[in-house]
Specification:
Layout lengths: L14 E6 L9 E7 L6 H8 L4 E3 L2 E5 L7 E7 L7 H10 L3 E6 L5 H14 L9 H9 L4 E9 L4 E10 L2 E9 L8 H15 L4 E8 L3 H4 L7 E4 L4 E3 L8 H21 L7
Parallel strand pairs: 9-10
Antiparallel strand pairs: 1-2, 2-4, 3-4, 5-10, 5-11, 6-7, 7-8, 8-9, 11-12
Length: 275
């Protein structure tokens, strides 16, 4: 165990856990993560945790601190500078008038579980999340933050997608989104992000937090496609120069961010001192 960062003692002591990297499972990469179980956090506390490179899953707040790797780079969109791309505008046009979105606190019931199970089986097969009621509640209902659910329904009133977001002082942070595999052609993952960006704008929030942008991971690299992006470099948020991860300027920035995050993590999460 290690102490909480000096900037956020409210997190309490952190547990260090070694395992396998979920983003590059075929490479056999080891992972190292620090976890906190802080109890309830005020929006400004969770925002401070995100400014240290942390994220939330259920009631756990965590930061990957893998040896020799900092590819997990926090990424956010400056809402005022966001403009959808041509392909994103096509997604909006295709779905116009098809759905209603209801804002509620997260719930778990048979309707949610049926949809969640179809999504996990289609997207992740045997490697997906557990789909029993207790596991779902632990992942998407239990929280330490100010958390909301976006329930997407078609014109018949059927639940076809669910998004979960956290609200902090300066923004909206996406947590998870799942959808009906039968609607794959509508690009609902992109649509949900566009809708949540607009929600942040309507709520007067400055940023939309997308979690980690992981260079080299197909599952996570799509986030760079959202304009107005900013990457966390361990000390501050830096505007990204491109939506293309292969752009040399983008690669250079991500390299600098990895170096900066490594230095910052050594200060805030002194894992080596605890071993």
């Amino acid at each position: 165990m290690i102490p909480a960062p000096a900037r956020l003692p409210r997190l309490g002591p952190l547990v260090v856990v070694d395992g396998d990297c979920a983003y590059f499972p075929d490479d056999g990469r080891p992972s190292r993560t620090v976890y906190a179980l802080p109890g309830r956090l005020r929006p400004r506390d969770y925002q401070e945790a995100m400014s240290l490179g942390m994220r939330r899953s259920g009631t756990l707040v965590y930061r990957p601190v893998c040896v020799g790797c900092r590819r997990c780079q926090p990424f956010r969109v400056d809402v005022a500078h966001f403009e959808p791309s041509r392909s994103q505008r096509r997604v909006l046009r295709r779905s116009e008038g098809l759905f209603d979105v209801e804002l509620t606190r997260p719930v778990v019931d048979d309707e949610h579980l049926r949809l969640y199970r179809r999504y996990q089986e289609d997207q992740h097969d045997k490697d997906g999340q557990d789909t029993d009621e207790e596991s779902y509640a632990r992942f998407l209902v239990d929280t330490v933050a100010d958390t909301w659910e976006l329930a997407w329904r078609d014109r018949r009133g059927e639940l076809v997608a669910v998004g979960v977001v956290d609200v902090v002082d300066d923004g909206v942070s996406t947590v998870y989104f799942y959808w009906d595999p039968a609607l794959r052609d509508l690009s609902l993952g992109v649509l949900s992000a566009l809708w949540e960006i607009d929600l942040a704008r309507r709520w007067g929030k400055q940023y939309y937090y997308l979690g980690y942008l992981v260079g080299g991971s197909r599952a996570m690299s799509y986030k760079a496609q959202f304009g107005g992006g900013q990457l966390w470099d361990g000390a501050q948020w830096v505007a990204v120069p491109s939506r293309d991860l292969a752009d040399p300027a983008m690669q250079a920035l991500m390299g600098r961010a990895e170096q900066g995050a490594t230095v910052a993590d050594a200060l805030h999460f002194p894992v080596d001192d605890a071993r």
